[in-house]
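Fold this: DUF4212 domain-containing protein
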Amino acid sequence: MAFKSEEQAKAYWSENLALMFKLLAIWFVVSFGCGILFVDVLNEVRFFGFKLGFWFSQQGAIYTFVALIFVYVSKMDALDKKYGVDE
């Protein structure tokens, strides 16, 4: 990667870290919040025959993580193009 200036490199990494923290926060809320903290409230709702809290703790967090990987890839491609460091 070749940035034109040090400020451009810092801006790139700043945006990259902000994106990662946002996506990790979403994953934390889904996995820890929905799977552990709010499980009793969510278990009152059925999803495909299973209690929703159980579903989030067993599969929902995994599906969310995989979806967040695809979001990260697409956002990083756009960020790379924005700063001219795409391949």
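The radius of gyration is 18 Å. The CA atoms of residues 43 and 51 lie 5 Å apart.
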